[in-house]
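Deliverable D5.2: sample structural annotation.
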Amino acid sequence: MLKASTKMLLRTHGQVVTLRSTVFEEYDPETGVIDEPTISNELRVGIFESFKTTDSRFRGTITQEDDKLLLIDAVGSVPKTEDFMLVDGVEYQIFGVDAINPAGTPVLYYLHLRVV
């Protein structure tokens, strides 16, 4: 119920963003070749805002003036700090991920972003 309500609110008030992940292929010892990494783009819905240095979710991280906070739905893959977000055509590196997960079910992710 909470996950569905969160998803509805994000779709009503948020915007479409892209979670960009790089999947690294394994080394094939028989051929001696490492396959090229694959880029995976996943559309998500989120709310984008300025990062507040007082936000305790990311306490202890060094923030910069242009850092942003993105709240995204918990539908799809779990964002990682190795991933990137595309918002309004701008690519951001994910510097921190914090899940809101009442009773162990993620409903929302807070992402600390920095422009690449």
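Annotation notes: The chain has a mean pLDDT of 87. The radius of gyration is 16 Å.
The annotation will be released with the project's public dataset once the embargo ends.
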